[in-house]
Specification:
This protein is about 75% helix and about 0% strand. It is an all-alpha fold.
């Protein structure tokens, strides 16, 4: 899934996998 992160096609998904605080804001 790291490939998607690099592509930047779905940053939300990438952050969701990392479970970062930024991900929550992105989802909201």
């Amino acid at each position: 899934m790291s490939i998607r992160c690099q592509l930047g096609a779905s940053r939300c998904s990438c952050r969701r996998v990392l479970n970062l605080p930024l991900g929550s804001s992105h989802l909201t």
